[in-house]
Amino acid sequence: MPASDLDASPAMTAAAAAPTPARLLDPGFALTLRPMRYPAFYDMYRAAIRNTWTVEEVDFSGDVVDLRQRMSPAERHLIERLVAFFATGDSIVSNNLVLNLYTHINAPEARMYLSRQLYEEALHVQFYLTLLDTYLPDARARQDAFAAVQNIPSIAHKAAFCFKWMDSVRDLRRLDTHAQRRQFLLNLICFAACIEGLFFFAAFAYVYFLRARGLLHGLAGGTNWVFRDESCHMAFAFEVIATVRREQPELFDASLETEVRGMLAEAIDCEAQFAADVLSGGVAGLSLTQMRQYLEYVADRRLRLLGYAPQYGAGNPFAFMDLQDVQELTNFFERRVSSYQVGVGGELVFDAAF
Q1: Comparing C-alpha atoms, which of 75, 74, 84 is closest to residue 151?
Q2: pLDDT in tens, 85-123
Q3: 293 lies in which domain range?
Q4: Of 23, 56, 139, 283, which has the highest C-beta tally within 10 A?
């Protein structure tokens, strides 16, 4: 038999034609849900659908009384700065989701989840819009809050940090090279660990500090639902990162870890500057030192989720974050949670998620 015939044998031809398994960051636009490559993402999508709430369920009537009659000027300054950050924070996350994450995470089941996340980010924007309209009856004050990224330096600083990492992948149309995929990973890690995972979790701490003082229960009730959503968003992002680590471990080299640690340190500094502004009036029971320690504590949690050793060794300084009422929600990041569904009420426990 001629050598050319041997080379063209059916078995060898079939082996040569076998496609290389697709990876999550391979360029393209996969459309086929069967066979499903990443069922965990589909399960997250289905769970998110069951986790539906509406802004109309939140009752702010008691909050208005608190703001007018029970809160000190320093506490009112805290809440005004907080809602000013909320006014644009989720819009920034939404823009990155649409412009970057949806473009490059190439699995239809993952894009299903991202579509649901986009809805939830819009819901959060509606929640904060309602919050601003309720808390700030003065039209000029509302206008200033919506323009916070231009006129409040501590919020502008945080926004600049976000935009820097969005701009870092703005011109990427395909992830063809090692460098491009690494660049995308840094954007994803920034939004999961620093923006949703640090900036928003610090904001939640202010809310629950006030609730521990018996203040703003409407805000705290709505924040329970936002917290649940944001925790799921992070769980998804960290699952994407873990999947890419399994498929392309060469991307997770020592230089990536160095950049991630530097990114988190910069995020802590941004949020500490915001804390200095938020607490500038002297809020009894809450100090800048405590907030810095809390940020370092949360940063160590994020490093562990990324497979890195903790850097700060900080403990949680806020006992009120460990004393939430119902144990239905323990840790979105270390075990799957199914108890938060439509029609299920109750509070949250925050001991392990921070």
Answers
A1: 84
A2: 988 888 999 999 999 999 999 999 999 999 999 999 999
A3: 38-322
A4: 283
Phi-psi region of 214 (alpha: psi -120 to 50; beta: other; left: phi over 0): left
Count of C-beta atoms within a 10 Å radius of residue 170: 10
Q: Which amino acid is at 278?
A: V
Candidates 42, 45, 113, 128; catalytic one: 128
Helix 288-305 with 200-212: angle, nearest 10 deg: 130
Quote the CA–CA distance of 154 and 346 in Å, as a whole number. 34
Q: What is the pTM of this model?
A: 0.85
Q: What distance lies between CA 95 and its chain's CA centroid?
A: 13
Q: Is 276 among the domain residues?
A: yes
For the chain, first and last CA: distance in Å?
69
Dist. CA 24–CA 278, nearest whole Å: 40
> Over the range 275-303, which residues count as b (16 or more CB within 10 Å of their CB) and which as e?
bebbbeeebeebeeebbbbbbbbbbbbbb
CB 218 within 8 A of CB 207: no
Per-residue pLDDT tens over the stretch 248-298: 999 999 999 999 999 999 999 999 999 999 999 999 999 999 999 999 999
User: Which residue, chain included where needed, has tokens 């629950």?
Assistant: 208
In-domain check, residue 138:
yes
Please give the Cα distance from 62 to 218 (Å, whole number). 7
The yes-or-no answer on residue 297 being catalytic is: no
| Owner of token pair 């995308």 | 184
Q: Is 21 inside a domain boundary?
A: no
- CATH assignment at residue 232: 1.10.620.20
Q: Count how many domains the chain has.
A: 1
